[in-house]
Amino acid sequence: MKLFDAIAGLFGKGSIMSDKSSPAPSSQTGQPAPAQPAADAWILPEKHREQLAKLFESLVNPVNIHLFTRPGPSDPVGEFAVSFCRDLSRLSDKIILHREELGAQEARTQGVDFSPTLLLEPQRYSIRYLGAPLAEEGRSFIETILMISLRDSGLSKESRELLSVLDSGRLIKVFVSPTCPYCPSQVLNAFRAAVERPKLIEAWCVDISQARELAELHGVSSVPHTVINDQLTMMGLEPEQRFVAELATLRDAASLSATLRRRPGETSQADVVILGAGPAGLTAGIYAGRAGLKAVILEKNVLGGQVSLTPVVENYPGFSKIAGVALMDVTAAQARRYCEIVNEEPVAYEAGPAGLTVKTATLEIRARALLIATGATWKKLDVPGESEFFGHGVNYCATCDGYLYKGRAVAVVGGGNTALTDALYLKNLGVSVTVIHRRDRFRAEQYLQDSVARENIPLVMQAQVEAIVGDKAVKAVRVKESKTGKSREIAVDGVFVAIGETANTEPALALGCELTAGGDIKVDEGMRTTIPRVYAAGDVTGGGGTRQIVTAVGQGAVAAMSIFEDLSREKK
Ligand SMILES: Cc1cc2nc3c(=O)[nH]c(=O)nc-3n(C[C@H](O)[C@H](O)[C@H](O)COP(=O)(O)OP(=O)(O)OC[C@H]3O[C@@H](n4cnc5c(N)ncnc54)[C@H](O)[C@@H]3O)c2cc1C
Predict the structure, then answer these.
(1) Which of 157, 177, 270, 331, CA to CA, is 20 to 30 A from 381?
(2) pLDDT average, residue stretch 153-159
(3) Residues 485 and 507 in one domain
């Protein structure tokens, strides 16, 4: 996917930049630069201008955006940033754009030497984007404008308390890619903190597809990747409170978790606690709420589950084509009308005669029923080098980390739909891809196999990965060929592992639920597990043999109705 296509997915909805007259910021793609639009032409399509103008009606204080670009015509990404910000400033008189040049006095004063760099309300806050806020980061950019204008970080009470005692400075750099759906939430964690304690906290969002040198300097090889004071590194998206705790203490989650677990928590009551805000959990929340049950969804990561990582969904009824993150945005918004969604990780589960208890770092919830909708995660190869190089060449999410390998070579390991989709996606990004599969044929659907053949993607069939080798980063993958029994190394800069999924059964095991021979949670036709009042739905049960969004959604609804029936019977 070219950068222009990524911009077309601004806000992850695949459409905000679909106006064909818009410029492609081609310095990143190696293509010749197209003509820039006339100074007064809009690059935001009309539909989005209307939506944004409505959103900006809630702005209270002015937001000054200082945009630094290189002088001259050789900066198409900078020009894109100018057009984008100019459009926003034309939609609200509260958004004021100041154009600055690199090398000028203001750039020196602000320590800016990269084009484009955006500073938001620099008189008051230290918030900057290195690189235009493309695609997914469009979301964090708009949210940050709102946050700054309202002078409200939107942090929880607990996070504010933690930051109120901070007495030394922090510089947070969040490295992102335009297609990473997790990244905007991590950027917002950092920017919220910078709004909360403006004198002490500075936060940057660094686009690795644009600010490559800085990303390399920090050894970034998966996103989001967060560095605080060049001292503490976080890999992945962190729930807000954990992020803030690590930021405040400069200690990592592992060393903090013991302390957090001992904190006395607030206790609340619910009819049902739902673990996981993927399609199954969100649907169950909607059905439970509509049945009059008090439901609380606990999500330890990003809302939307695996679907938030899916670039495009084409088989969900009602939408011929929709970005995964957009589908989950509307589902989560609908679920919020019927139940509470709490972004915290459960740390303990108990089932007793009096009911069920789930604890997070700050909450204790007593419930009459528990629904496990924790989905599934990528299977590991379990070969030497895999954990050692995780985040340094070993990846599991092509959508998130593909950009890092543009112009470089990777191996995709696997033979199913995900592996071939990843291979095609990476090839399209300009990555040199080889698919390695242990069997002589693929499990993937025929149309994907045909596309891989059409794209001339090299295949290494009947080859078992033995090891991932390198020094500081991955250098090669070692495979053993079944036919000859011989091992050989294939030189690559990265490996994408796409060999299937394992059900997230940790809560089920903690509660004593039985599993199937395949390692999924065993359920009856009403999604009841083998432990009374504990239910399961979605991929964690095997997803009815298909592991699809529709099956997860269907099972979530069935589980909620079973819970309603069982609890109603109990009342009598
Ligand atoms: C790359 C990719 C592309 C796909 N494309 C499609 C497609 O085009 N069409 C289709 O129908 N399906 C597709 N799928 C499959 C589909 O995404 C899944 O079947 C579906 O998301 C399953 O929903 P779920 O709610 O059961 O689980 P998940 O989506 O996995 O959600 C589970 C949620 O639970 C959370 N969680 C885990 N453990 C805990 C815990 N202990 N406490 C709290 N929360 C927890 C997770 O963070 C996650 O958010 C795709 C999957 C992938 C990976």
Answers:
(1) 177
(2) 89
(3) no
Residue span of the structural domain in which 132 resides? 3-261
Same domain, 292 and 338: yes
Percent of residues, the chain, with pLDDT higher than 70: 90
Shared domain for 457 and 481, answered yes or no, is yes
The CATH number given to whatever domain includes residue 147 is 3.40.30.80
**400 is annotated as an active-site residue:** yes
How many angstroms separate the Cα of 286 from the Cα of each of 300, 334, 567?
19, 7, 17
Q: Which atom of ligand 1 is nearest to the CA of 551?
A: 19
Residues 483 and 508 in one domain: no
pLDDT in tens, 392-422: 899 988 877 888 898 999 999 999 988 999 9
Q: Do 248 and 148 lie in a common domain?
A: yes
- Residue-wise pLDDT for 131-155, tens only, equals 999 888 998 999 999 999 999 999 9
Residue 490 shares a structural domain with residue 353: no
512 shares a domain with 491: no
CA of 278 to the centre of ligand 1 (A): 5
User: Of 108, 114, 144, whose CA–CA distance to 130 is shortest?
Assistant: 114
What is the pLDDT, as a whole number, of residue 253? Answer: 65
Domain boundary among 497, 526, 546: 497
Task: Give me ligand 1 centre to Cα 310, in Å.
Answer: 10
271-330 pLDDT, tens digit per residue, is 999 999 999 999 999 999 999 999 999 998 888 998 887 767 888 999 988 888 889 989
Residue 462: which CATH number? 3.50.50.60
Q: 25 CB contacts (<8 Å, ≥6 apart)?
A: 3, 4, 7, 76, 77, 79, 80, 132, 134
Going from the C-alpha of 493 to that of each of 304, 426, 431, 466, 499, the distances in angstroms are: 30, 13, 10, 17, 19
> Residue 149 is which amino acid?
S
How far, in Å, CA of 347 to CA of 352, rounded?
Answer: 17
Choose the catalytic residue: 207, 271, 329, 401.
Answer: 401
Structural domain includes residue 389: no
C-alpha torsion sign, points 189, 110, 61, 140: negative
- Residues counted in the chain: 572
In a domain, 11, yes or no: yes
| Distance from the alpha carbon of residue 138 to the mean position of ligand 1, in angstroms | 24
Does residue 35 surpass a pLDDT of 70? no
Read off the DSSP letter of residue 302. Answer: -
In whole angstroms, what is the distance from residue 137 CA to residue 31 CA?
A: 23
Residue 313 beta carbon below 6 angstroms from any ligand 1 atom = yes
Task: Give mean pLDDT, residues 528-539.
Answer: 97
Choosing from 397, 513, 520, 539, the catalytic residue is 397
315 within some domain = yes
Q: What is the pLDDT, as a whole number, of residue 1?
A: 31
Q: How many domains does the structure of the chain reveal?
A: 3
Same domain, 127 and 201: yes
Q: Is 138 in the pocket of ligand 1 (CB under 6 A)?
A: no
Task: Select from 261, 290, 308 the last residue of a domain.
Answer: 261
Is residue 384 assigned to a domain?
no
